[in-house]
Structures are given as C-alpha cells and as structure tokens.
Amino acid sequence: MNDSVVVTPDWLAAHREDEQVRIVDVRDAWEYDGIGHIPGAVSIPFDSYRDESDVDRGTLPGADAFADLCSEAGISPDDTIVAYDDTHGVFAARFVLTALEYGHADVRLLDGDYSAWNREYETTSDAPEVEPTDYEPDPLSREESPLVGYDAVAEALERGALFVDTREQHEFEESRLPGAVRFDWREVVDDETRRLKPPAELEALLESYGITPDREIVLYCNTARRISHTYVVLRALGYEDVAFYEGSLTEWLANDGTVETGPATEDD
C-alpha cells in the first residue's frame, strides 16, 4: 500500500510529532472533545468542508472556504496532512479528496480510524496550540482533476468504461447507471481490525468484480461521500485511470440520465 496515500497507525505514531505533519480529525466536535483524539490532531468536522448549496461542484465547499478551514487549523500548503474519523475512514477520505482538489499535494488517509488507533496508542482530550496560517489554495484545473460531470460520464458510458457503484444493494436495485457493477465500499475493510485488508487480498477482491488497473473506471454513489473511500484505496493500490463522478446519481437523475433498476443480471 502506497504510504504517500494511506499511512498505518505505526507510521503516524513515528511521525506525528514531525514539524510538517498535521493530523486532522473530521469527527463531530463533541467526539473530538468528549471522547478524545489522537495527540496533536486538530478538529475539522465533516460538515465544515461539505456544502450542499452548489457553491462548487457537487458538495465541495469552495476553495476559499477550504483555505479558511486550513488557516484556522494552522495548516500550510507544504504540510503533510493525515486525516482520520471513526467510521472506517469514509468521512476522512472525503477530506483527502477535497484537499487534493484544492491543490494540497501531500494529504493521506489513516489506515483504520480512531478506534483502530486507540487499540495500540494513546489518545488525549487536550487540544493542541495552533498558530493560524494564511493558507493559499491552488485548485486543480478541470484537466488535472479526477472529478467529472454529467457530460463526461455520458461519454464514458459510450466508451464502455467500467462504472462502479459503491452503494448498498437496495439503492443499487432502485436505480443505477447502465451496466454498473456494485462494489460496497466497506468490503475493503477488515471488520475485526477496522483497517484495510492486505493489498494482495484487496487486489484479488477488486479483480473478482472486474475492477482492474487496465480498465477505465468511473466511481459514483449518491452524493460522492462513499466513493471518496474507494477512490483513495484505488489510488493507494496504484490504479491510475479512475474518474470521480462528483455529482453522482443525484446529478444523473436530475438530468434525466438513463438508469437501470432491479437486480443485476449476469450480463450486467
């Protein structure tokens, strides 16, 4: 697993006091304060970097709003960010995606979550002293970004790209993009350790669904939260041709895109 994308608790324990490592806890503020957090972590709750008002593509908060969050948290563009939550990393992965979109070069997901960390390492209820910065975002261009919109998705369907639906079975059967493969994002997580399964196991699992590095892959769910986790995992495994449908099924349906319903057949 590429540690420039996903880091283990051991890695974080060894590097958390490094000058340029910034740990971001994306749980609710009451969890950060009341349950405890990883020493040195700052609180940037999930709702603070998600905006439903269409200020940017999908639920992205906008570059200025993201910069304000980073500035208040004492984060600089050159810092290494490690994000975590307590939900197997799905909310933290959304932070990773958001930071990458706004040009933060080095942002990583903690393999596991707060509970996984807490099994081996100390936690604290003390918030670190933070010196605000003047964070300058550098958003990716449309050409650089993995995010795609309705028109690009329609073109990818015509090309025969592999569409991966990371939602639950009942959602998939209710409505899905034509020919999509359902891959529950949680399948990559070991329920006992709360961490990702070993790379070889992950690769075999993905291959069993036809999700292989040689395919053009387009990820979607409902509102682009769950696909954030799958996107980060695929990047960590070295997948390169992976598009991220930020509008997901919400946008597709709003534009009257063609869908399939019911159980998938063998031909799907």
From TrEMBL:
Disordered, as annotated region: 121-144
PROSITE patterns for the chain: RHODANESE_3
Gene3D superfamilies (UniProt xref): Rhodanese-like domain
UniProt keyword annotations, A-Z: Repeat
Pfam families the UniProt entry points to: Rhodanese (PF00581)
Signal sequence, renumbered to the chain: none
Annotated Acidic residues bias: 128-137
Domain Rhodanese: 17-126, 157-261
Protein name, entry field: Sulfurtransferase
The species this protein was found in: Haloterrigena alkaliphila
